[in-house]
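Backbone-to-sequence.
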């Protein structure tokens, strides 16, 4: 591999600040295509931030249903260019003999952008067809512990600290301990990276973990969490309506607007270990339907 892709790149920029200008080098989050091939068959191209590419590939195969056990992944390696050099933007996955891989079933050859995930596949019917198990009903989390997690997530975002342009996903245990954190320009890729690492390490299903993501809690985040067996998903911004619908149908706990000492429970409030005496009911008004419309994350 001549020049491995980097997670961040420097470029000269011009800053304007109250009438004064200066030129300096600024770090930008990298966004490059990664082609994933399974047994020589291209299955997807996703725009991602280079780094943890093997975790991304393993997580993608798991959450998309191409493998059902980590032992079915025999080998993951970078592919070769036409000149025989290793490519930093192509990953070849070899499945074991026990894995059932039908190329026609996954003949989508889709391109996944960093913003939309696997476009055209956001369907609850497709999730139902996979007959996923409901997440661990015995898992619970306290509000006090939950509100401490975003600070830990932010402290672990090292590339974000340089660029300000990356999402992150992290897995926490029941005591708030940080198990895994991954960054990517695509929030769905960050989730695949943490799920893939957990799969390779033999920790899936993740029935005793909390998944925290920066940005929105979209449908695909909830879908991937369900496949991985995660009972609690939290995001610092708003979830989508389809994400809430899916979480409620499968009994997953979904938090949104997790900021400071405040959050909103959109589904699965039974996992919140707050005393009923602390829960205050307020009249529903048109302005309160989404909780915090003024906090909506910009695109």
């Amino acid at each position: 591999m001549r020049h491995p892709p980097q997670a961040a790149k420097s470029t000269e920029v011009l800053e304007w600040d109250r009438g004064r200008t200066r030129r300096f080098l600024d770090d930008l989050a990298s966004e490059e295509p990664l082609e994933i091939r399974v047994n020589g068959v291209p299955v997807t191209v996703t725009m991602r931030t280079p780094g943890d590419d093997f975790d991304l590939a393993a997580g993608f195969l798991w959450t998309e249903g191409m493998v059902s056990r980590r032992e079915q992944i025999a080998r993951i390696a970078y592919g070769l260019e036409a000149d025989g050099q290793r490519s930093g933007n192509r990953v070849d996955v070899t499945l074991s003999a026990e894995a059932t891989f039908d190329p026609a079933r996954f003949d989508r050859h889709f391109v996944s952008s960093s913003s939309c995930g696997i476009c055209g596949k956001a369907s609850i019917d497709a999730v139902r067809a996979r007959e996923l198990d409901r997440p661990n009903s015995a898992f619970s989390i306290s509000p006090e512990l939950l509100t401490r997690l975003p600070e830990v997530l932010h402290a672990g975002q090292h590339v974000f600290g340089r660029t300000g342009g990356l999402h992150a996903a992290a897995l926490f245990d029941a005591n708030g301990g940080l198990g895994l954190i991954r960054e990517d320009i695509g929030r769905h890729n960050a989730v695949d990276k943490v799920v893939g690492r957990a799969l390779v390490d033999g920790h899936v299903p993740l029935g005793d973990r909390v998944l925290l993501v920066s940005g929105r809690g979209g449908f695909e985040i909830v879908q991937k969490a369900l496949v991985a067996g995660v009972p609690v998903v939290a995001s610092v911004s708003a979830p989508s309506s389809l994400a809430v619908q899916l979480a409620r149908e499968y009994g997953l706990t979904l938090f949104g607007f997790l900021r400071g000492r405040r959050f909103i429970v959109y589904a699965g409030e039974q996992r919140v270990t707050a005393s009923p005496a602390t829960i205050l009911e307020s009249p529903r008004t048109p302005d309160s339907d989404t909780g915090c419309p003024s906090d909506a994350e910009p695109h």
